[in-house]
Amino acid sequence: MFRTAVIRSFAAATRTAIRPIPSVSARRLAIAPVSKPSSFVPKTVAWQAVRCYASGGSLERGEVYERIKLLLSGFDKVNDPANITETAHFANDLGLDSLDTVEVVMAIEEEFSIEIPDKDADTIHSVDKAVEYILSQPDAN
Amino acid sequence: MRLSGLQKEVLGLYRQCLRECRKKPQATRQHFQVFARSEFDKNIKVDKRDFAAIEFLLRKGRRQLEIYSSPGVKDIR
């Protein structure tokens, strides 16, 4: 999408730039105060279609929790989906063992397309810790 | 719950196994995950103070992971 937008805006820019070249005298006469705004309008419109990498992208706490909850409710080793709360502890509240916890953390990694290093993964033992960690990661989405 | 260094190593190995699973074809990935879990479950009863046994199993597991992570291995059952 980014590439097509770039090509489109480039084409729009060159189209207006090339047109006056054949008539050199005409270009000299009209010092192009009128054609300038019209040539720039399509360019900005095309650029607005591009979503820059720097824009937005931060996650809401509620949304992160909902996604983790959905992920956990799909995990068949959780003792009771009703136990999944904002502060649920994986081992104490959801009845998961340490290997299950590793699986959950890996699933969270995949869900938010980030990589959690072992050191941090060992500290994630509960839903609120997981939410906290995701929110602290700028790459998470 | 506080984990000992050895316990962390075991969990690290399991994490590594799951990471390797992701490199396998989508269709058989589940088989690899179930297999990895069953290998760990086989020795779930090992006492946590039995360092020699755990060290041995860790070495064995790492070797096994190395073998199965070769791209030639496409399925497991």
UniProtKB/TrEMBL annotation, chain A:
InterPro entries the UniProt entry points to: ACP (IPR003231), ACP-like_sf (IPR036736), PP-bd_ACP (IPR009081), Ppantetheine_attach_site (IPR006162)
GO cellular component, one term: mitochondrial [2Fe-2S] assembly complex
Molecular functions (GO terms): acyl binding; acyl carrier activity
Stretch forming the signal peptide: none
Keywords, comma-separated and alphabetical: Electron transport, Fatty acid biosynthesis, Fatty acid metabolism, Lipid biosynthesis, Lipid metabolism, Mitochondrion, Phosphopantetheine, Phosphoprotein, Transit peptide, Transport
PROSITE patterns listed in its UniProt record: CARRIER, PHOSPHOPANTETHEINE
Gene3D superfamilies found in the cross-reference section: ACP-like
Pathway, per record: Lipid metabolism; fatty acid biosynthesis
Subcellular location: Mitochondrion
Protein family: Belongs to the acyl carrier protein (ACP) family.
Function: Carrier of the growing fatty acid chain in fatty acid biosynthesis.
Entry protein name: Acyl carrier protein
Organism of this sequence: Canariomyces notabilis
From TrEMBL, chain B:
GO terms for cellular component: mitochondrial matrix
CDD domains in the cross-refs: Complex1_LYR_SDHAF1_LYRM8
Location relative to the cell: Mitochondrion matrix
Ranges of residues in domain Complex 1 LYR protein: 8-66
GO biological process, any: mitochondrial respiratory chain complex II assembly
Keyword Glycoprotein: no
Keywords (A to Z) from UniProt: Chaperone, Mitochondrion
Top-level taxon of origin: Eukaryota
Keyword Chaperone: yes
Chief site of localization: mitochondrion
Similarity remark: Belongs to the complex I LYR family. SDHAF1 subfamily.
Protein name: Complex 1 LYR protein domain-containing protein
Species annotation: Canariomyces notabilis
Lineage: Eukaryota, Fungi, Dikarya, Ascomycota, Pezizomycotina
